[in-house]
């Protein structure tokens, strides 16, 4: 599991971080992303989540839809990611 740095109370974050994940069996690997809004004074707010089969991912900049805790796609929340495979 990897975590980005925390950005307090910011619903338009720009993490600009790079993570590497070594894969033993890419055909079975999943990339799970979960987004929370960090609050110092209150409980963190859940922003959305997704789980993507690695074999379906393509290099480049992608818009990733997020889902709520019940698995329903969030209409107004998406994540912009850049994927690179080495």
Automatic annotation (TrEMBL):
One of its GO terms (cellular component) is plasma membrane. Gene3D superfamilies: C2 domain (2.60.40.150). GO terms for biological process: phosphatidylinositol-mediated signaling; release of sequestered calcium ion into cytosol. GO terms for molecular function: phosphatidylinositol-4,5-bisphosphate phospholipase C activity. Residues 1-68 form the C2 domain. This is C2 domain-containing protein. It comes from Brassica cretica. The lineage of its organism: Eukaryota, Viridiplantae, Streptophyta, Embryophyta, Tracheophyta.
């Amino acid at each position: 599991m990897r975590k980005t740095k925390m950005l307090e109370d910011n619903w338009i974050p720009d993490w600009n971080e790079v993570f590497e994940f070594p894969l033993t069996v890419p055909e079975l690997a999943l990339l799970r992303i979960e987004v929370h809004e960090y609050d110092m004074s209150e409980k963190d707010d859940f922003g959305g989540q997704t789980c993507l089969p690695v074999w379906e991912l393509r290099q480049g900049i992608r818009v990733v839809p997020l889902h709520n805790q019940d698995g329903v796609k969030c209409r107004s929340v998406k994540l912009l990611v850049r994927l690179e495979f080495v």
